[in-house]
Amino acid sequence: MDTRTGSRPCALCATGLRGGTAYLVDGVRLGRRRGTTRFTRLLICETCYERGRPDPDTGLTRAVSARRTKTAEWWGLAGRGPALPPQLCLAGCGLTVVRGAEVLMRGVTCSAACRTSLTRRRNGGRGSGRPCGACGTPVTAGRADSAYCGAACRQKAYRRRAADRTPNPTPTPNPGPNPTPTPNPGPNPALAPALAPALAPALASAPTSAPASGPAPAPVPELLAALIPFVDGTTLGISQTLYKILYRVHTAHLRGHDPAEYIARLTSLNPDRIKIPDTDDGRRLRASLRALRPARNPHLQP
User: Fold this and answer.
1) How far apart are CA 24 and CA 91, in angstroms?
2) Residues near 297 by Cβ (< 8 Å), separated by ≥ 6?
């Protein structure tokens, strides 16, 4: 239904408002389900307004049944003060509107659509002239600070930003009823050249002879394995600062990026003072953080 031609119906009786006087009132639209009531301003015809307005002789308010239907209810003219004489809608839709004489209501418009149209026409409505943020077409309509040429481009840009923020881990295939044990692939070879300068002091300070229980695991692969229970929500209890850094390390690793910047932040944390739960996963994470500690300070504190 076109809101610019004055063909809108009355909110209560659905009578066409063309050629008559429309009354702008405060009210609500009643939904079919509970909790869907929406406060808004309604346009009603003169007949519905006369039936539900206060009694002109006594000033008493009419019964609610005179101002309510199955879809809407109103309680008074929009705007405080006495009723203004009937005036044409300033947006040029052709309706004659009656409303209250409130100073804050600048101009007489019959709806939010007409108010927006009036504002755009006063501001020129020529848009910003800048390229659209989604399709690159110059914005030639709308407000002077419009960044997109329409709602479709605005939604497209939002989905693009949301896709850039959401990590995209590689899905794990279903092993089936008799899964075959998968060997540990070891450290990522693509990340080894980028992490070599940051971990050179740690590897240099590591003991050359392995203990009897077996060789010590490499610091970065062990950290990538130890942080998984804490970033996927399985284990809780770590500090917020540590969680943010571990999540960024994990996300960068999954995307194939270089996590050396975030691992360098981990080396600035004291693994003996940071909040980590005293569980098997927590002790493993704390040990992996201690293995990274020499990369920042090769002289261990007593």
Assistant:
1) 15
2) none
Q: What is the pLDDT of residues 271-294, one digit of tens each?
A: 888 888 888 888 888 888 888 876
Prediction pTM value: 0.41
User: Residue 97 forms beta bridges with which residues?
Assistant: 22, 87
Q: Would you say 129 and 138 are in contact if contact means Cβ atoms under 8 Å apart?
A: yes
Q: CA-to-CA distance for 242 and 245, rounded, in angstroms? A: 5
How far apart are the C-alpha atoms of 177 and 93, rounded to whole Å?
A: 69
User: What are 197-210's pLDDT values in tens digits?
Assistant: 544 444 444 444 33
**Which residues are CB-contacts of 266 (< 8 A; sequence separation ≥ 6)?**
223, 245, 246, 249, 289, 292
Instruction: Tally Cβ neighbours within 10 Å of residue 172.
Output: 6
Backbone φ and ψ of 170, nearest 5°: -75, 125
Of the chain, the end-to-end C-alpha distance in Å amounts to: 80
Q: What single-letter DSSP state applies at residue 199?
A: H
- Classify the phi-psi angles of 79: left when phi > 0, otherwise alpha if psi is within -120 to 50, otherwise beta: left
Residue 68 phi, psi (nearest 5): -135, 140
Q: Which of 18, 24, 109, 91 is nearest to 8 (CA)?
A: 18
Helix (H) or strand (E) holding 72: strand 72-77
Q: Which two tokens stand for residue 36?
A: 């869907």
